[in-house]
Amino acid sequence: MGCCCSSPTTVKKHSRQQQNQRRSFSVQQAPLATGAAGDAGDAPAFCEFSLAELKAATNGFSSENIVSESGDKAPNVVYKGWLQNNRWIAVKKFSKTAWPDPKQFAEEAWGVGKLRHRRLASLIGYCCDGDERLLVAEYMPNDTLAKHLFHWESQTIDWAMRLRVSYYIAQALEYCNCEGWPLYHDLNAYRVLFDEDSDPRLSCFGLVKNSRDGKSYSTNLAYTPPEYLRNGRVTPESVIFSFGTILLDLLSGKHIPPTHALDMIKGKNILFLMDSHLEGRYSTEDATALVDLASRCLQYEPRERPNTKALVQTLTPLQTKTDVPSHAMLGMSKPEEAPQTPAHPISPMGDACSRMDLTAIHQILVITHYRDDEGSNELSFQEWTQQMRDMLEARKRGDFAFREKDFNAAIACYSQFLDAGMMISPTVYARRSLCHLMCDQSDAALRDAMQAQCIHPEWPTAFYLQAVALAKLSMHTDATDMLNEAASLEKKKADGSRAS
Prior knowledge:
Blueprint: H1 16-19, E1 47-48, H2 51-57, E2 77-83, E3 87-93, H3 102-113, E4 120-121, E5 123-129, E6 132-138, H4 145-150, H5 159-178, E7 192-194, E8 200-203, H6 226-231, H7 236-252, H8 258-266, H9 270-273, H10 284-297, H11 308-315, H12 326-329, H13 348-354, H14 358-368, H15 386-403, H16 407-419, H17 426-438, H18 442-455, H19 460-472, H20 476-499
Parallel strand pairs: 1-5, 4-8
Antiparallel strand pairs: 2-3, 3-6, 5-6, 7-8
GO molecular function: ATP binding; protein serine/threonine kinase activity
Catalytic activity: L-seryl-[protein] + ATP = O-phospho-L-seryl-[protein] + ADP + H(+); L-threonyl-[protein] + ATP = O-phospho-L-threonyl-[protein] + ADP + H(+)
EC number: 2.7.11.1
């Protein structure tokens, strides 16, 4: 990672020589707050990035790289990025006026950057350049709790998984509290992320204030801690209140204003509070315990709410199916055996395919768009007919569905485009191939990737997608051969570019 570091007490405009220097601190792995075994994974040491690095990683802060649910209209936008050291990152870009003092911003970032815990998505860097203020964190590829809870497409979250989410986030908050970071700004279901194993983790971004004064809650006022409405300050007790709103989300599967939920609880209407999609598949005793904990967290008087240690103690005995991995309970694909990484240096696409990271492949195909169709995207005849317009409109609808991860709709639209037979496009075949992979249709994915190769015989992406499909079909030797072939084509292309 070509990042440069400086002490937070000496932040200033760096010379070119200073920007090329790198200094970072190693972070001692911290035990779980509950005393259980575990570490923070392979998060790198915290350091300072240059603005040029983060621009390159996020394709110039492209709107296509935005991953925050509020989109580019939010004051602070989160982008997905790719570093040269083959690591995906999440980059939070603050508004110009949020942190006028770079020294203060750097001190805040360096403090949070020391935290390392397996229930926390680690902060791995920051950037101060002119008016720009950015944070860099580990990227969590499996979306947010809000997405899985409120916008689920295949299945709702299993009851045991909901209990696990509440427990893991409580552990993260207890760890942060023990490490001297008891304040978490705007805790909500969008701050709960799922990592590559589908384990829930707390976003580190909420540990850094949204602005110098910290006076910004993006959630609806109905969900905001009452004391924050009075004085505009976040306290440790405010964090507990916000945790209570997450418990309500987990119980009900929807946003319920805390005052309304408390009225339901006082009226003994707990059954009406529960998510109907669970269809009664939960322990009434455990549900009652979770409702009681939510009620305590949402008390109007801050002093009447439990602390983080009490959260963990209450949630620990409620954990069930402890031997079932999170990806199984969340209904996500099991991490599969990937083809052996080739000897040649490979591109982001190659790395994503070697890791069987379908989410990363999707992001790369979205960013690449139709750039690789040059020279192969030909019309079978030149008249601009209504049929041609209909066909291009089908592709446009397919592209929209592809970006929105509606893969079944994308397959239907791309099939309409391809079946017309009026235009050949290896990119459409590649995109449909990935859609088939996302829908566990490996045979169809392999056919589409092979068709893309037929159209564009030296296109590495076609070979990479074949490698993924073959691996999913348990043809691992063939998958490794295909991965090596793709890497060789990339190397050949790179050598040719240097020679010219």
